[in-house]
Amino acid sequence: MAATWQYALCICMLLMESRGSDAGNNSSQGATTLAVVSWRWEHVSTPYLVALWVLVSWLCKFGEVITGISIVTFKWNHVKTPYLVALWILVAVLAKLVIESFPSVTNVIPESALLICFGWILGGIIWAADLQQTFSLTPTVFFYFLLPQIILDAGYSMPNKLFFTNLGGILLYAILGTVWCAATLGLSLWGCQAGGAMGALDIGLLQYLLFGSLIAAVDPVAVLAVFEQVHVNEVLFIMVFGESLLNDGVTVVLFNVFDAFVKLGGPRINAVEIIKGIISFFVVAFGGSLVGLAFGLLVSLLSKYTKNIQIIEPGFIFVLGYLSYLTADMLSLSAILSVTFCGVSCQKYLNSNMAESSVNTVRYVMKVFANGSETIIFVFLGISAIDKTIWVWNTGFVLLTLFFTLVYRFIGTFIQTWWLNQYRLVPIAFIDQLIMSYGGLRGAVAYGLATMLDDQRIKEKKLMIGTTLIVVYFTVILQGVTMKPFVTWLKVKRAAVAEVTLIEKVQNKVFEHSLVAIEDISGQIGDNYLRGKWKIFEEKWMSRFLLTSEARKKQDYIFNVFHQLNLKDAVDYVDEGERRGSLEFVRNESAFINFKKKLGDEFSEVLPDIMYLEVENQVFCSCCRRDPVSSVSLQMHEKTMQGTRETEDIDAHHLLQQHLYKGRKQHLHRYSRNHLDINTDDNEVQEIFQRTMRNRLESFKSAKMGLAPAKTITKHTKKDQQQKMPNGKSTDTSKNYYANNEGFELSEGDNASGSEASGGSFPFRVNYKAGAGIENPTFMPDPDPMAPMQIPPWQAEDEPDGSTVSPSQRAQVRLPWTPTNLRRLAPLRISTQSTDSFAQADTPASQEKDKKWPPPPPPPSDK
Amino acid sequence: MGFNGTSPLLDQRGELRPEDFGAIRELSMNPIGDRIISAFFSPGKETVDFASFVRILAHFHPTETSRSRDGVQPEPANSRTRKLKFAFQLYDQDRDGKISREELLQVLRTMLEMQVTEEQLQSIAERAIQEADLDQDDAISFDEFRKSLEKVDIDHKMSIRFLS
């Protein structure tokens, strides 16, 4: 609580600074009443100021001496606007930070409601300081600077397939529902006024309809927050999400149409004008969508060629998205729909064209923008309320508006759903309808439109703004708070939170295809038929023009899922490894079964099968075993047998780079505007220390038990990963030491059984053997030159050099474990065999180990 | 039954042959089109009459929630199990009650595009089998198949609104 007060005070002061001296005096008087922080400016003001002036004048003089210009000047007016903007953003974000730090509160009260409350407080402070409301949400700021990114984000993260499957319903709700709400509300209010329920108000039917249209805008933010928390089923989710998104656009269009009518004036409206209005409604809505589509395709096309400017690649979508908004607005088409469809149409192509890091960047930046402006909007919605001038109270008007918005929302939803259900394969359940109706929260769009009203023509503008605010507060706060209990209480069907499985995805594909086939056979043109047609069209034309050739290859759905799953496994693998202090376990525990099974099955089979095993392993391993950063973006489809041959040299090179210890001087932090390098600098001292410790342990073990040191490769990998972990977990040496020890024993046990299982002769053995010990020093990064320096003296003394180094050498070299590699290196090995006696001694054992290498990471369900 | 026989295929013979299905152009572009076609023909038969044609189509009829369960009636063709069985048989070409790795591979091969290499296909198949394979026999039995798709809304995914 103290923190919030401090913030508030701080902000207050800063704001007052901008206000000028009056406000400053106010605050100093107000602050003296606080006992905790006694503010004794008056006591010291004169000497303080004198001292300051002296300082400043000296500085100025100092400046004059050298250049003749003063060094320090106070230029508040120069920076005032951007400064205030930045401050506002900071305040809003800090508010969010404070609010989010109380999860118990946000669980009950949605964040948007809390932000509004925060806005009230802030507004109160400002008002107390200024005695007037200097800050309020102007339509320009709202519609040009705050809204576009929210809509772009919503469009961009739209689940496309779900959206288009339910497009009919969404359009129905968005268009018809909005018109229905606007019309009925306007008419009813007008009727009530005629009936004398609201006293004397200077509002005509057209003005009422205008008001109805602006209040019909449903705001998705609060509802979606709740929906995400409770995981409602996806159909309900997309219905509400899609509706509220398109509905914003439709509302603005409708508002403009009625606004034009109001401008035209009542008597001059005839049938022709009304028809023109209706036509313009559709032209504006669909025209806007088309502009958005065009821009979306443009972005996609551009992203095809941005490979060389990866660093600004993510910027295109923002700039062009904004441009699509502005263009549509310029053409007096629906800007909101434009930017929505821009996002919807380009997401697929952008995601496949851009590099993975850019995709993530876009995703995050998008969220940052959207979340930020959402926060600002809600705070402003709160602040706007603290203004005496806007409040014109009319109980009848306010209450009736509230009542009608709620009731007509329900009625409208039920009628439309009933109609929709006649044509839907899976009807929308009654409970879902209730939630949809109840989720009709009004938000900032309504308020933004209300402030756009022309007070020349609409005399009761202030009443309308006030009422809009009340409706917003009522729905966001009251309905928002009750939404979650409501969802829980009604037992709304939840989404199944299931792990993605490959078989499921494959099966879904099969279902899709068979549905298309059956529709073809039964000769009817249904959704699936159209979808099939669209797919073919898209594959044939859109993809060809909009996707890069690599992206087109990767595009396949099932393969994508496969890739994603593998990535996930890799991440799990690392996580789990980190948790247990070693990566050893994955290979040993879970994968061993698979290997054994396979070994049993294919033991007697011929070489190709084993090759296959290898290839498969390679695909899986390349994901998890190699250097983790690059492997994430590793394009697996390129890792064909032929590809390996070509990349082999690069691999070796890469390997050397990765694992050679570098001289300190190379680890300079580099700055480049065009490239984002991950700093590979790491705490090598620790690594080397650990490594030597491990070597000691291993040599000790092997000496004692007559066994070769176990695979150390994964440990290296682990360390590399650790170093690159963003949070930089501290590597507790002693802990790791023991963990490694554990892992070591585990692997030994498996080794034993592994060698039993593979007791017979392997036709492929020669190759394996060759590969097992790539002990050619030339292919090895040699840690030696650096190692002695970092090895603790006690260790350097009592360990013979060879035994400390060789196990890890062998381990390192195995990293790019590819069949071609092995074969190529085979002759070399023979030559080294004679020299490296230590390695020779444990070749048989390591060879067994190699065979059980990298079984595919098991599916999560296996565990 | 919602289906009213609007199929363009049914000719005067009252029976259909595989060639009749082959005449549908869209179907030839469907990766699993020929599997669907062969699903219409019971083993060893060359023709399908209207009744069995409709019976196959009935698999795709949406399940009605209000169906009376009198127990005597055999399980309707559009029940979850029957739908799944139909899907299962699309894979299980040799009808041994198991989807072997090879059978899965065949389906994958037709469905994935050319760009995916054979090795990747195999690892995909391998992974898919591992996911579903509970008894470690390197093949997916119907039970395993059903279990693996437990969370999938079959009714949603394998239903068509036939003209009614």
Which regions of chain A contain 5 or more consecutive residues with pLDDT less than 50? 1-5, 12-32, 585-647, 664-668, 707-863
DSSP, total strands of chain A: 0
Span between termini of chain B: 8 Å
- Placed side by side, the strands forming the largest sheet of chain B appear as 1-2
Approximate helicity band of chain B: 40-55%
List the helices and strands of chain B in order: EHHHEHHEHHEHH
The number of distinct β-strands of chain B equals: 4
Strand content of chain A: under 5%
GO biological process, one term (chain A): regulation of intracellular pH
Main location (chain A): membrane
Region (Disordered) (chain A): 710-737, 775-863
Protein name (chain A): Sodium/hydrogen exchanger
What's the topology here?
The complex is a heterodimer of chains A (863) and B (164).
Chain A: H1 2-19, H2 21-32, H3 41-66, H4 76-100, H5 103-108, H6 111-130, H7 139-156, H8 160-165, H9 167-194, H10 205-215, H11 220-230, H12 234-264, H13 271-303, H14 315-330, H15 335-353, H16 356-385, H17 395-421, H18 430-438, H19 444-452, H20 461-489, H21 502-522, H22 527-546, H23 549-554, H24 557-580, H25 584-588, H26 590-602, H27 607-624, H28 628-632, H29 641-659, H30 684-705, H31 713-724, H32 733-757, H33 765-772, H34 787-790, H35 793-798, H36 801-813, H37 819-833, H38 837-841, H39 843-851
Helix pairs in contact in A: 1-2, 1-4, 1-6, 4-6, 4-16, 6-16, 6-20, 7-14, 7-15, 7-16, 7-19, 9-10, 9-12, 9-17, 10-12, 11-12, 11-20, 12-13, 12-15, 13-14, 13-15, 14-15, 17-18, 17-20, 19-20, 21-22, 21-24, 30-32, 30-36, 33-37, 33-39
Chain B: E1 15-16, H1 18-22, H2 25-29, H3 33-40, E2 48-49, H4 50-57, H5 80-91, E3 98-100, H6 101-111, H7 118-132, E4 139-141, H8 142-148, H9 154-157
Antiparallel strand pairs in B: 1-2, 3-4
